Amino acid sequence: MFILMPDSPTEAKFLNDDDKLIAIERLRGNQMGIMSREWRKAHFFEALQDVKTWLWVAMIFCISVPSNGISTFGPLIIHSFVSDPFDTMLFNVPVGISHVIAVSVSAYVSMKWKVKGLIIIMLCVPPIIGFGIMLSFPHDDAHRAILLAGYFCLSTFTGITPLIYSWSAQNTAGDTKRKSTSALVFIGSSAGNIVGPLLFTPEEAPSYSRGLTTNIALFSAVILLVFLTSAYLKMLNKRHAERRVALGKKAVVFDSSLETAGEVARMSTIQENWERDARLHNGELGSSLDYPEGQQSDYEEEAPNSNAFADLTDLENEDFIFVF
């Protein structure tokens, strides 16, 4: 693990010096910086005071409660309407396969679409439907098919937790703050894992109505938290744009680290065309270099005097772009 997953490109033993420089330079676009061994108390307290830190803690807690409850008592739920123990184990096989599919597909789609919040919401919908089905029908052999369909709907929850961790890390800069935020999110996850199994007790068999109802509420809370977090991140992006304008920078920064090579080339071509039009315009008017009216570039791949490697937090660095 230490060899294959280094803390920073500078510590990657499988990269030569040139490759390390390329990897580090790629980090410039997303303003995340590289690992620092210096503990910054101010960054730690900023993590504690940052609203989005606690939004992610609440989000991971809300998903960890049903996640661990389902994982621990899933066979017990199936056994409530499937009497044979062997059949209970057999019906759990497709659930395990669907877990792998949910994690893989959600990770790929979030990377392809460059969004996290929307994917999390989409993954929350099937479990809510599944819990609703399991609450609406008696847990007996006569309703086995519909109850199994409801139980299989729960499988998408496994893709949510990795996305929350990724979303949190992607929107937190500053080495100390990033580590502190990750620790708080992990604590929230652990707390949820402790609470989850307590919602299902043998005394409530076979309906387990308390656990199922609570899980519906928690998945709904995750959706609400995603909306709140996305709105807050959008507001932070607007604030950073205003700060960049006040400092003489362009309002919108183009983060090339999130794009494919083809998209970067396309945006570079657009940028070059804008620059060429600006030079032609200035040549005709004999004025200083400026963009033609209505054609000012909306993208800037790298801001002047970049703060990318200054170990600034996401709130301190006006060039940081929040992703939602």
TrEMBL record:
Compartments where found: Membrane
Membrane topology annotation: Multi-pass membrane protein
Assigned keywords, A-Z: Membrane, Transmembrane, Transmembrane helix, Transport
Membrane-spanning parts: 54-78, 90-111, 118-139, 145-168, 180-200, 212-233
InterPro entries the record matches: MFS_trans_sf
Gene Ontology MF, one: transmembrane transporter activity
Broad class of where this protein is predominantly found: membrane
The keyword Membrane appears for this protein: yes
Gene Ontology cellular-component annotations: membrane
Protein name: Thiamine pathway transporter THI73
GN (gene name): THI73_1
